[in-house]
């Protein structure tokens, strides 16, 4: 059954029998035979087949979701058994929100790999809501988010601080103005992240705290695209200091000096409510908490 589920998942994710066969080093007839056997066991049609691609039926979607969970559990079982016999090794699935995932996490992973070369990390970047969902559904071993989220299905631990600042293009008129106030920013176009993002949540909270609503805004799906938009003069943004270090050093962005800024927020580690951590998870978290940026002062 495990091999049939693995083949089924590969067909769904590749959307082609031939591509799945290549990935699994099988013949296409063998893949087709396995899918047929699985459909017989489920007593349901799982895939719509066309000459160009395959798509899930309603029953197929149910099987796919459970197959991913079953295969994940099987993989974790193998890792846990291996842990009892060997040094930290095997896959480590990490989900992280954009700011941490793009600007901090690579340095943590590099440190882990330099010490434990048999650990094989895979990184998924998403917004805060997506990261929490992935961990809760056991599709990721752990997650790291910006701020917090109300979800009792996971365990959350604040471990490091972050500071948020208002940034503009170096050529923006406000960069040369003395005594900038929040009222100067009301008429500006604000470049913001999408709903569900920790940075979007922090931006809206900042608006609320200072009792103003921007005249206009533009929504972008990543921090990098926001920085590009700000550099191009499309507007201003509220971003993490971690995310703009390179641009500040290059002189393409500038921090607007405002009273009561920067504003502090926190990074949060997200895990499932279990003590069944693999050695790979344990050493990653140790390296994470030992990193120089980590500030454990907030309980």
TrEMBL record:
SUPFAM superfamilies: Periplasmic binding protein-like II, Winged helix' DNA-binding domain. The keyword Transcription regulation applies. Keywords: DNA-binding, Transcription, Transcription regulation. It holds the Pfam family LysR_substrate. Residues 1-57 form the HTH lysR-type domain. The keyword Transcription applies. GO terms for molecular function: DNA-binding transcription factor activity; transcription cis-regulatory region binding. InterPro entries: LysR_HTH_N, LysR_subst-bd, WH-like_DNA-bd_sf, WH_DNA-bd_sf. Belongs to the LysR transcriptional regulatory family. This is LysR family transcriptional regulator. It comes from Fictibacillus macauensis ZFHKF-1.
């Amino acid at each position: 059954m495990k091999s049939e589920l693995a083949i089924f998942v590969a067909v769904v994710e590749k959307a082609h029998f031939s591509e799945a066969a290549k990935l699994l080093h099988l013949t296409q007839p063998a893949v087709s035979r396995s899918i047929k056997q699985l459909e017989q066991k489920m007593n349901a049609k799982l895939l719509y087949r066309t000459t160009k691609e395959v798509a899930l039926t309603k029953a197929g979607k149910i099987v796919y979701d459970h197959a991913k969970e079953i295969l994940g559990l099987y993989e974790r079982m193998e890792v846990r058994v291996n842990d009892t016999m060997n040094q930290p090794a095997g896959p480590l699935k990490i989900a992280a929100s954009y700011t941490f995932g793009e600007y901090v996490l690579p340095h943590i992973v590099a440190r882990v790999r330099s010490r434990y070369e048999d650990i094989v990390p895979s990184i998924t970047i998403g917004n805060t809501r997506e990261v929490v969902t992935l961990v809760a559904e056991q599709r990721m071993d752990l997650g790291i988010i910006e701020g917090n989220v109300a979800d009792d299905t996971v365990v959350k631990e604040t471990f490091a601080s972050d500071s948020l600042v208002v940034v503009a293009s170096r050529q923006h008129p406000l960069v040369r103005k003395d005594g900038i106030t929040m009222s100067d920013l009301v008429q500006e176009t604000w470049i913001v992240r999408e709903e569900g993002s920790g940075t979007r949540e922090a931006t809206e909270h900042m608006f609320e705290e200072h009792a103003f609503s921007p005249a206009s805004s533009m929504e972008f799906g990543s921090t990098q695209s926001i920085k590009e938009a700000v550099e191009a003069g499309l507007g201003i943004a509220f971003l993490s200091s971690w995310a703009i270090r390179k641009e500040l050093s290059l002189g393409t962005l500038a921090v607007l000096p405002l009273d009561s800024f920067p504003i502090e927020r926190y990074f949060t580690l997200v895990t499932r409510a279990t003590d069944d951590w693999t050695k790979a998870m344990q050493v990653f978290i140790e390296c994470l908490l030992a990193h120089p940026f980590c500030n454990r002062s907030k309980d």
